[in-house]
């Protein structure tokens, strides 16, 4: 359980920390970051993946919690991440943040469903 909590803490920290911050220090990193994350599809895939893994981890750590609790925690982290990003960039919330939250929620649903399915599957054995 302790190892899972450490992994969860690092995962949440990785989600919350604005990776774009590093672009200030390296032109090479800036070009790579821009190339990788400017296309909408890659942005969507990355957000969905990050929050699917988060939800899966939460289902492993909190196996008896209902799906609503897991998804509530996912959305709490998603709001934290968007808030940090807005503070970092000095912007106000808009359609892009709402879209990101929707994608984060979708990733969370997929990860939580996979986690609950995995738990049920391994419990049968």
Structure in words:
By secondary structure, the chain is an all-alpha fold. The chain has five helices and no strands. The longest helix is centred in the C-terminal third of the chain and has 29 residues. The mean pLDDT is 89.
Show the helix and strand layout:
Blueprint: H1 2-16, H2 27-37, H3 40-61, H4 67-89, H5 95-123
Helix pairs in contact: 1-3, 3-4, 3-5, 4-5
Compute the number of strand runs.
Answer: 0
Rg over alpha carbons: 16 Å
Percentage of β-strand residues: under 5%
Name the poorly predicted regions.
none
Shape assignment: elongated
DSSP summary: helix tally: 5
What is the ordering of alpha helices and beta strands? HHHHH
Q: What is the average of the pLDDT values?
A: 89
Largest sheet: none
Find the structural class using helix and strand composition.
mainly alpha
* Terminus-to-terminus distance: 21 Å
Q: What helical percentage do the residues reach?
A: over 70%
């Amino acid at each position: 359980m302790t190892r899972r909590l450490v992994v969860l803490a690092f995962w949440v920290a990785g989600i919350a920390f604005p990776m774009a911050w590093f672009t200030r220090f390296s032109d090479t990193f800036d070009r790579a970051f821009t190339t990788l994350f400017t296309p909408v599809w890659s942005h969507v895939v990355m957000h969905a993946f990050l929050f699917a893994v988060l939800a899966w981890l939460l289902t492993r750590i909190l196996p008896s919690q209902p799906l609503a609790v897991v998804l509530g925690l996912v959305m709490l982290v998603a709001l934290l991440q968007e808030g940090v990003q807005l503070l970092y960039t000095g912007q106000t919330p808009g359609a892009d943040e709402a879209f990101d939250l929707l994608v984060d929620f979708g990733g969370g649903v997929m990860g939580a469903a996979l986690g609950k399915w995995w738990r049920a599957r391994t419990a049968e054995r």
